[in-house]
Automatic annotation (TrEMBL):
Transmembrane domains' residue ranges: none
PANTHER family: LEUCINE-RICH REPEAT RECEPTOR PROTEIN KINASE EMS1, RECEPTOR-LIKE PROTEIN KINASE 2
Pfam family, one: PK_Tyr_Ser-Thr
UniProt-recorded Gene Ontology molecular function terms: ATP binding; protein kinase activity
Protein name: Uncharacterized protein
Region (Disordered): 133-167
Highest taxon of source: Eukaryota
Entries under InterPro entries matching the protein: Kinase-like_dom_sf, LRR_receptor-like_kinase, Prot_kinase_dom, Ser-Thr/Tyr_kinase_cat_dom
Regions of compositional bias (Low complexity) in chain numbering: 137-156
């Protein structure tokens, strides 16, 4: 197998799937001996693919993780030419983060948090904790999907592939 930028993108996608699912690429807990990529594809759109330790997180965080999962699925597309570049991946991940931070700012401002606190906390990994006064919750109902950033420019869906192995 030749190592290329596109095979590196595939490998990155597998690592992200490992982190989000808590499963190894070939995991004995995955039924039918499926590769983690195929297992996630069969269950896509379901919070069931997330590591059980992550499922109890606030809805906004679960939605963010599912958006990142969508980016990972773009990375593991069976057709190398259909995979994004790492530059595209970074842009999609930044957009996911930006959307969450913007939502948190608006949500907190609507709930009465000081605007300065919302503006100063944009670099935090847990904006909702810093932005919102104690007792305010934050849930993200955004319809944003990171996969739409990339797939809107592509004719094929990133979920059409069935092979779990890179080219």
């Amino acid at each position: 197998m030749k190592i290329t930028e596109k095979s590196d993108v595939y490998s990155y996608g597998v690592v992200v799937l490992e982190v989000l699912t808590g499963k190894q690429p070939i995991d004995p807990t995955i039924p039918d001996g499926l590769h983690v990529v195929d297992w996630v594809r069969r269950r896509k759109g379901s919070g069931e693919v997330l590591d059980p330790g992550l499922r109890g997180r606030p809805d906004s965080e679960v939605q963010e993780m599912l958006q990142v999962l969508g980016v990972a699925l773009l990375c593991v597309n069976a057709a190398p030419d259909e995979r994004p570049t790492m530059k595209d991946v970074a842009a999609m991940l930044k957009e996911i983060r930006h959307e969450r931070e913007e939502y948190a700012k608006v949500d907190c401002l609507l709930k009465g948090a000081a605007p300065a606190a919302a503006v100063d906390a944009t670099t935090s990994t847990s904006c909702s904790a810093l932005l919102c006064p104690r007792g305010h919750s934050n849930s993200n109902n955004s319809s944003f999907s990171a996969s739409s950033i990339y797939s809107s420019a592509r004719a094929k869906s990133p979920f059409e592939s069935t092979s779990a192995y890179p080219s």
